[in-house]
Amino acid sequence: MSTDLGGYELPLRLLLGFRALIDGLHAELAQQGHPDVRPVHGFILQAVGLEGATAAEVGRRLGVTKQAATKQIEQLEHLGYLSRAADTSDGRRKVIRRTGAGQDVLVRSAAIFDQLRIGWSETLGEDRLAALERDLREVTAGPLFRFDAPGWFSGG
Q: For position 59, what pLDDT does the model report?
């Protein structure tokens, strides 16, 4: 049994680590020309996927309602990160796709996460960080990429 604060400290420390990475990411994205991108936007951009998706599909992938997904999609469309057009095979369907700016955010995010990991490695040491990553893989089952975090956090 832990002599520290108790079992509840672990999830809070994991969340603080997540926040440190995400806050670092968004500070750097702002420096690199994307000041309006918010954490939820990354989930939306990923959920749209390479082939595009409808608002209903994005909502299902995120575990939120179509209306909640549409609100975020409209915001990203207004900011120039997504576009919406009629589906060529079904004119009633509107397909959302990433724009060049939307793709740029994801490419830059991947590079920034690599740099943030280097920073953690310099602080903790590569061996300790690699052990932490192995240990987290051991205790976290399922796919690495889950887009339903927004719905999970909001109880959707």
A: 92
DSSP H helices in the chain: 9-31, 39-48, 55-62, 66-79, 100-124, 126-139, 149-154
Residue indicated by tokens 């500070």: 27
37 phi/psi in degrees, rounded to 5: -75, 130
- Say whether pLDDT at 154 is over 60: no
The residues that bridge with 97 in the sheet, in sequence order, are 83
Instruction: Give strand pairing partners of 82.
Output: 98
Say if CB 25 and CB 40 are below 8 A apart: no
- The DSSP annotation for 59-91 comes to HHHHTS-HHHHHHHHHHHHHHTSEEEEE-SS-T
Q: How confident is the model at residue 35 (pLDDT cuts 50, 70, 90)?
A: very high
Angstrom distance (rounded) from CA 78 to CA 20 = 28
Which tops the pLDDT comparison, 107 or 142?
A: 107
